[in-house]
Amino acid sequence: MSEFSSLNAALTGLYAQKRALDVAGQNITNANTDGYSRQRVEMSALQGPTVPSIYSTWAGTGAGVSVDSISRLRDSFLEQRAAIEHGQLSAYQTRTGVLHQVEDVFGEPGDQSIQAQLSAFWNGWDDVANHPDDLAARQQLLEKSRTVAGQFNQVGGGLEAQWTSLREQLGATVENVNATAQQVAVLNAAIQRGTQSGSDVNDLADQRDQLVQQLAQLSGATVRGGSDGMVDVDLAGGALVRGTHANALAVSGVTSFDAVPDPTLGGAPAVDVVWAEGGYSASLAAGTAGGQLAAINTDIPGYRYRLDTLAQQLATTVNAAHANGFDQNGNAGGPVFTGTTARSLTMALTSPDQIAANSAPGSLDGAAAQTVGELGSASDGVDAHYRQLVVSLGVDAQTADRQQSIEEAVVQHLDASRESIAGVNLDEEMTNMVAFQHAYEASSRFLSAIDEALDTLVNHTGMVGR
Amino acid sequence: MSIEFRTTQRSVANTALAGLQSSLDRFQQLQQKLSSGVAISRPSDDPVGTVSIMQVRTDQSRADQYSRNASDGADLLGTADTALTTMLDDIRRLRVLAAQGINGGQSPDALSASAAEVESIRADLLAQANTRYLGRPIFAGTADVTDAYDANGSYQGDLGVAKRTVGPGTSVDVNVPGPDVFGPAGGDLFALAQQIADDLRSNQANLPGRLDQIDTSLQSVQNQLATVGARYNRVDTMRTLNDNRSAALGNTLADVQGVDIPHTIMDLQLQQTAYQAALGATARVVQPTLMDFLR
User: Fold this and answer.
1) Which residues in chain B have their CB less than 8 angstroms from residue A362's CB?
2) Model confidence at A393: pLDDT above 90
């Protein structure tokens, strides 16, 4: 080993420690950057020739240090799990939000809700039964009937408005998925070129991984590693991103709430997310889009059809009981309500004397009105069925709340584990900085030591007796 | 190999933030409960509680209506009771006048005066029989007429029975049709009174027979009065029952829906302490780094 190779060894030390200091600086400056993974300089000692050749000798010391790579500390298996759990959490969050909105639409337990209006409606019949000739009581009953029908219209309309808005949101979510997938493909291409040319792609990979997590949250996509530092993104077995190519999704199905079939009947979903190419279903079950699909196809239509059944039951039972009575003009009672859905339920009586309160023409016994008034207390009446509807809504929303909070805990732990591996600890970086700084100083001191030795050799040797 | 769990400034900050957030969230929920006064504001807060509230509210509203129905029935029966009591006095006076006519020794003037009084009693009886409650004659059955008996004493109404619903599936008759009280058309109390007046003037020999007829009428009115009284008691009991039930349901509602204020305030206090502790701990943990100690 020559003296000059020691100079070189000192230089490699200066370079390597300087590089390590730079990386520590990069880590510290990005300590709070979303999606940043801490980096580490991988150094190795430069050895002498391992295969000695003839006429060459090796004193045994190494030739300095080399910087092999700058690695990005990230656990790809944790990332895969994070994608799955984040996708699941997004679906739960979406569904919880929808169910809470449905609860708001129903407004139970409240003073203005369907239940309260029904109670007032049944009581109105009793007031008419007590005084069948009292125009005020009849007028009031008409008003109460109109309010009940109006309340059904409002809740039915509220569900429709919610469905329409969710249908639009699903379109926006799918567009977002397509744009993000495209970006992932573009970044994959950049990473492939960078990896092949041997340049640093860590920050590009961070950016891409963050987008992949977004895809997972939006659509429940899963991720797996590919070649040349690229990743593939899958959607229920289909390929959303394959290397540098992204496949687009589209929304198919009905656009009007009326066209959505009753989910309890089974059959194909009314609205679905499909692959733009080929048009077959992407089988979305998780992510924001998965949650939106479930709400669009199952939750909201489910409540709607149950409410429609109730509106029908109200119209049928009241009309049937009313038809047995006779109105002020001696005619048999006509229908009180028309319409077959919650949104189309309409009060059909036009004047107070059309209320058929009595059991015979010309009589004022109020018996028919009494019968109608007691309908509300029936154990299988509209009120009882409506309460069942509200209890299942409450249970659904509560279950969704719980699923969400469990999933939140899972995601929180997972994110803590990811942060534990990829996050920047400032104390650690400070310690590293001190270590690298000292090594840098020592390397330069080594350089000076060799320099002085050479100086002695070159300038002060052979001067004896001069 | 044990897995080393690195802790970073960011994870400390995240954990602290999540802790503070959930603490503040619970704080807000308690505050919302206290300020709204209701423990259940949406079905998912407590599905079973929600349905209890809805059921109790419906039951309470129904009990109030039953009470109102019973109250209306009681008023109607009370009116009938007053009318019948007054009529009993009139009928007794009728009997006295008829009995005086039998005894003889009365001058024709006195008899004619008695006859005039009987006629005025008859008019009064008719007026009582036409007693109205809220504009409708109470002895006219369920017929849509203005008077139960016209000036000639002929019945205008029908034999319909008006009922009031005073409980689930329970109803009480609240009227007595005229013929049931005053006798069938032609042979009723008003015809009898007219006959007595005529007999007093011209045919006193008929009067002893009339006395029996008066007694029959008296008995009939007394019987109906007893029936009316019994029904009045029944609807009045039902009114009280329904009022009590409504009050009890109100208590249940307050129990299910209302906020336990002392308990909630205690919770709020505890939550406040926890929140302050979390704030204090966060302030201590987040601040220092190695930089404070490296020189």
Assistant:
1) 143-144
2) yes
